[in-house]
User: Fold these one by one.
Assistant:
Number 1:
Amino acid sequence: MGTTPIISDHDLYLFHQGNLFQSYTVMGAHLLNEKGKSGVRFTMWAPNAENVSVVGNFNSWNGTLHEMNRVSENGIWSLFIPGLKDGDLYKYEIHTEKGDILRKADPYAFFSEVRPNTASKVTSLSGYKWNDQSWYKRKQQQNIYEEPLLIYEVHLGSWKLHENGEFYTYRELAHELVDYVKELGYTHIEILPVSEHPFDKSWGYQLTGYFSVTSRYGTPDDFKYFIDCCHQKGIGVLLDWVPGHFCKDDHGLRLFDGKPVFEYEDIQKAEKKEWGTLTFDFGRPEVVSFLISNALFWMDVYHIDGLRVDAVSSMLYYNHGKSDEEAEVRNQFGGYENLEAIAFLRKLNETVFHYYPEALMMAEESTAWPNVSGPTYLGGLGFNFKWNMGWMNDMLKYMELDPIHRKYHHHLITFSFLYAFSENFILPLSHDEVVHGKKSLLNKMPGDYWQKFANLRVFLGYMATHPGKKLLFMGGEFGQFDEWKELEDLDWELLDYEMHLKMKRYVEKLNELYLNEKALWQLDHEQDGFEWIDPNNYEQSIISFIRKGLTEREQLIIICNFTPVVYHQYKIGVPLLTDYQEEFNSDSIEYGGSGQINTGLIKARDENWHNQAFTIEVTVPPLSISVFRPINIPISQTLQGGIHNEQKKRVRRNVTSRGRGEETRASNKKPS
């Protein structure tokens, strides 16, 4: 228990300017000593309130006993109550200008009651002893743009349940889930939102407690333990974060003091009818302080490695997702862009990278907005990664087609290369694509039982070899047949069946290939890392290309066949006159395939083909991806198709600078 004075004039100034970036250290409920007495200092913001009291189990929820003091003209209220302790329940009783009495949970609460109860809990966040120091040292030495990034997206409440239907706790997940993810080879876990939310079926995307880790699965220390275990096993943790909107539950942020405070006053700007939520007022400085503080809070307190920022498109455009019947909203220049939200996103990213240069800030953005992952000083939004929603939508549409019709839609598997290097992309196969009647990945695939698995194997293989970092939602790795059911756990019993077990084995080996081959990630965001061999064979629905690393010897030849036809002695152009061997084949019997593999050395011939100087002939299996490596490369050829030293340096500089702010951020705060 520490000692902290009442919120200072300097903090007040910064808060009302939108620049108090650790506002959670003075706002909310803090256990401390004042004038020799231990208790809790409560501080909150309610600019339109006539009166505010703290009510809780310590005063029988009586609003006349602990009235707060208004300490600023802009609506900061504060009160120290001696004798309170960790675990006490509380809310704010707010008397509005209209004479109404509201009971609100603390927007800055660090913990809350288990739903359906809604009170905030006095909680200390100090005292946990972290053991992830080596993880932070490793992060500081990484250049994530030239490193593998392989993300397993998970909803903690439905990954696995106990037999009685109860949730796994954070501490249980810290061992079972983390060990599972490590076994599969993923580098990061991305968790669907864990801030407190009242409705299970919102998946955590409609929040009431932004600073309160949900009590469904345990305590703040339990969640720290989960993160700590991830880091000790070399796994980064990303958090799905929702700054765009919040839910309308009475105890939450809506009409917090009887008037719009956190949301826009203009109802046309505030309402998100598509989701039944309200938009934050990004032009209000106090809201900016609240949200940016929350982003840093997860990194400061919980050692989160990065944020996937949800629904960025709905923040950028006033009318995104609105129906034709809803009134249009325009900015002061007549455009549809929300200029305040754009300024907020840039400020958010600049601030996060100031304190955490190694952070991952990922935008879920589905429009053609340019330079999302570009630095703000060049006009970008300042993220360092963007989800490639276009690739995801095109590929899902293509893979759902009967193979006999795929040749008429060949552009769907090649179009992404027109823009693949315009952003730092992540290729996502996320939760949104396997729910609400969309079917699971496996069940989207056409054909009979065998073909469904083969289609999924080639799909995931193409994803692994396509430029961009990778994300797969839980269950996809073993071919979940049913779509995601957020109130039930995954169908783990499927692993008792041979094809599902082989599917899991396939994903493990595919991930292993990805992690071990620099050509698949060193130049993810540069044209130099990719070269087409043949993108135009629509008649046979076959594509072939080269992935390259930073040295001449790091290159792979990839062939994808999206039909169930086997082709023997298939001729393909290659860049080097040397021997080739097959490194990976999704049609291996080990993975449930038909066993049409290429064994032994394949000798290149001196024959120009596919605009390449040389040629090899291989067997192309049905519905498959095959990966070949050149070996025994003659010294005379090591400069062909490679990247010279000066070019390498240029590539490294360009990739390293993407998404970052000014280079003056040399001395940065690090977590303890």
Note: The chain is about 25% helix and 20% strand.
Number 2:
Amino acid sequence: MFLALRAEAEDALAAALTDLDLPTDDLGIEEPPEDVDAVLASSAAFRLAGEVGAPPPKVAADVADAIDTEGLTYVSEVTTQGPYVNFLPSEAYFAETLEAATDDDYGRLPDRETSVVVEHTSANPTGPVHVGRARNPIIGDAVARVLDYAGYDVDRHYYVNDAGRQIAVFTWAYETFDESDLPEPERDSPEYEMVRYYRKGNTFLEEADADKVEEAEAEVQAILQGLEDGDEATYDRVAEVVDTVLGGMQATLERLPAVFDEFVKETRFMRDGSTDDLVDRLKELDCAVYEEDAWQLDLPDFEKNLVFLRSDDTSLYTTRDLAHHEWKFDNYDRAVTVLGEDHKLQADQLDAALDLLGNDTDQLRQVFYSWVNLPEGGMSTREGTGIDLDDLLDEAIDRARAEVESRLDDRSRGDLTEDDIERIAHQVGIGAVRYDIVSKQPTKGITFEWDRALDFEAQSAPYVQYIHARCCGILDEADDGEIPSAPDIAHLSEPEERDLLRVIARFPAVIDEAADDLQPHTVATYTRDLAETFNAFYRECPVLSADAETRAARLALVAGTRHAVANALDAIGVEAPDSM
């Protein structure tokens, strides 16, 4: 209902300004401070004061007087407070919010009939997923989920770098060394087994005799050239390595969870001729130059040229990515890419080149993120291997299990089986990691801290998850059919009840704005607001012990909260436990 009220307020304000012969280009609609009894406010009086020649409070009063609330459904009254015009909610606003929130799909917006491809993670398939890069799949999956909730038709893609030097080295090493030459794998999983060959190959190229290194480099170059030449046998050799590693990486990412509709391989755009076609078009651009034994774009807004073809006629990652993006533009209405902050220059140059090639680059948006760090001593790791995402998730589950068990008294322990405790540990542990990462603005570097992430009392995933579990517990104690299909809003007149309805009403608008801005962290912020407001309601408004009519209305409010918190958590990829 928040979106409907906002539209109604905007229309009413615009009509009033038109009647007063004032401009309507900036309505200044915003959410007021918590101590203001309004859903929305307008600061337009600040902007209009100079034009009118009157102080802002006087302009605000005139504008409020010009607004006709007779025909409005969700706005009951328009008041002023200093220079602000305030829009107060009607009973219909609260009643329809409660009715809408009792739907399981509450928060999902209507189909926009717009397709979006979200490319994220795209880590080189050379070994296990590392903690430092874990922000990409978590943010990327959350962006895709929020867009899906907002009504977009979303595909999730992983762009596979299977044509670069690293993969050529990996393929050569896999075919060269025997497993007996390698250490034991750190885990019984394909990517952990395969990465041993990659590490062995790189060590060989760094430390072996010059003659042997030269011979190895020739074999690596032959693999690269085979890919450029379209040699099917070379593609098959590389695919064996890449697909094996990807299979293991995919299993790790599914634990987050981060799932993909398609793994789009870089070599696809070499095999279908689109990279060669793109190179020909790039050479025809006015800014194309051949310098330092390579074809480059001398882009006017960049100090560094964009190299797109080497002297041996082999293409580069960026060249193939240009072809990849043109393919996206042909198949989707919009494209979103989630990238580490170290790729910003490359992304800006790619955008400029796409524009020069005649593409509508308004279709493309990027989300940049900074790295995830762990405090020193924050968790154990194996000597010399760094910290893999699997290690982090395992420890998260272990810590969550210990926390859950420490909070169980004899009564609640009897209600839970060992399977229940294990399920909750997974939901809370992985949810804590994911929530802690997605709840921060992507461009800000973060240090993951266990005590904060797993704090049941602070603003963390367990804190929000517990609200869902509490709602489920209350509803489980009620009789079937006790929640009315059309609850009477008159029985929800307490301030804490109305505050909770106001927060629930905002959820669809939070999804709408998060999708527009590609900022899923705002949904996480909303879940904390919802949890705090529900706790205030729970303290002051008994549900099951209330009289019959009040009990029914409050049960409907609890059901609405359950749907809002479950779907808000789902929109950022965090599970909502039924019990904790």
Note: The radius of gyration is 29 Å.
Number 3:
Amino acid sequence: MKMRNLKLVLFLGVLASCGSTHTVQNNTVKPTRNPNTTNPVKNIPKDLVVVNKPNPVKPVDEVLKVILPAVNREFRGAWIASVANINWPSRNDLSIDQQKAEAISMLDMLKDNNFNAVIFQVRPSADALYTSSLEPWSYFLTGETGRSPYPNYDPLQFWIEESHKRGLELHVWLNPYRAHHTNGGSVNSLSMANKLSDIVVRLKNGMYWFDPANPKTQGHVSNVVKDIVTRYDIDAVHFDDYFYPYATYNKGADFPDNATWSAYVNSGGTLSRADWRRDNVNKFVERIYKEIHAEKSYVKFGISPFGIWKPGYPEGITGSSQYDELYADAKLWLNKGWVDYFSPQLYWPIDSKGQGFEALLNWWKSENTMNRHLWPGLNTVEIRTPDRPNEIKNQIELSRQILKSDAGEVHWSIAGLTKNPMMLSTLKNGPYKEKALVPKSPWIKALPILTPTLFITENGSFAQANWSSKNLKDVFQWVLFKQYNGVWETEILTLDTLSKDIPKYKDGKTLNAVAIKAVDRLGNESDYMAKKVK
């Protein structure tokens, strides 16, 4: 019985080995050829053979070394004021949807007319158009100091996101010393005029003002600035021209700072009262500049002082003296480089007798010893001239002649654009015909931005360009270059644009090559990748 079983097993094993078409060696499977069989492929007619070979895509691009044109650069900003509901929101009783719709309309207008920056007032008078644990919600937002929007949202966060989507910088504009505005409703228990009453004074026109000499004032405003810089993805912090208040705010009477002045004198202080006041502001400006960059080096600090430092500077200039009235030594801040950009409010016509636009801008330029950005403020909304659009256009062109490659301007205010169609068309068809990047800030150190990767593929009568970067978080915009018949064209694109169908033929010209660069939030460009289009 055992022998029969053994023979059967051996017989089955032989059959199995004869029927096998593979042999197993070293745990690997290898095919074996049977000499008694013919190659099946050779016996099949050629026209019936199907070969599954990869179908190579014909390359349509070739990496190139090229010389690209310089990208157009100019700072083009607009102030958007919230105080007294000047610009946004237009009323303090709007619904959230109405507030957002107004904001979107303004931002779309700026993008469509080739602006590149928004200067948005988020702290008009020791209040907040953003979520803050330091100061109350603004009366100008909700109609009551301290009352939050309903349903709750963060206006500043909304403005940042919507601005950046459109390739616009967002600068937060703060008034450092105003504690309550006469148009800001009643002073209630949540108002800083009450909560910090020990460092606030009431002026004769009804406004409340922080005492700039009080260390507690400087500490509080410093904390407000650092809080915004830390928590929000902003591009700059901006102060306007209100330091010590204009004399008219107190009906010509001296600023009521007897307590802090007496403390200074009693401690052995030797400065005159005017120099002491200026020194208070000087130290504050330097502090804010350094603290912003210590927190986020790429966040710029800008100030827009009154356009005249002192009468007689330059010769022939007449008018108010910010040095003597506001105790603002703005020339010193520029000389010391305590700002990244400086926008003196040159709100007079070019042919003004005592406040000539050209003379003032040239003088400020001569004082710009640290080569910071000098971008004048223009009175787009109410400059005293019969033809405002052409006056503003001429001021932009004159600024370009004076400032050369670091040109720029800020428009007061966005109402001069939204409420004057002729102004918009004059700018869009003239100096703002093409988009522009903001000028670089070479004194602000930044890591080099990575070169993007570019792919070109066939898409019918178009070449489809696709690009990306390993570090998208460092990219703010793209610059796309297209070469037709040897001539380059440039196009500035928003961050979310990662592809483009480019016509191979346009106006009788043939597309030769495409290139791409990444741009960071300081306007620095990456190296390029360029490819030939076949």
Note: The two ends are 82 Å apart (CA to CA).
